């Protein structure tokens, strides 16, 4: 059982996923700081309140904290946009790598030329 667990942990996918989760958590704290310290004050200029998390809609005894929800939406949009940019950059890199033609060996190139000549002669 310990050997199986060791094999599971040492797989590249699991380690990559763990690194991604750790970096994602660190990135989330940076985005929260960005939203709370820069974007909220900017929105606050137009709304009239700097801290959106204090925006509350009250009906009777019920309080709807829509400011906190707005903060979460802003966080989500920023994180989603950055992830989109990262995936787009990775896909562009992969396309370039895939588009590079494989260099044929001398023998394969010779066979390719013979095939092309045969195709040309068939039409005559």
Automatic annotation (TrEMBL):
The chain crosses the membrane at residues 12-31, 66-87. The keyword Methyltransferase does not apply. Pfam families: MscL (PF01741). The keyword Cell wall biogenesis/degradation does not apply. Its main location: membrane. Keywords: Cell membrane, Ion channel, Ion transport, Membrane, Transmembrane, Transmembrane helix, Transport. It comes from the Bacteria. It is a multi-pass membrane protein. InterPro entries: Mechanosensitive_channel_CS (IPR019823), MS_channel (IPR001185), MSC/AndL (IPR037673), MscL_channel (IPR036019). SUPFAM superfamilies: Gated mechanosensitive channel. It is found in: Cell membrane. Signal peptide: none annotated. Channel that opens in response to stretch forces in the membrane lipid bilayer. May participate in the regulation of osmotic pressure changes within the cell. Homopentamer. Belongs to the MscL family. This is Large-conductance mechanosensitive channel. The lineage of its organism: Bacteria, Bacillati, Bacillota, Bacilli, Lactobacillales.
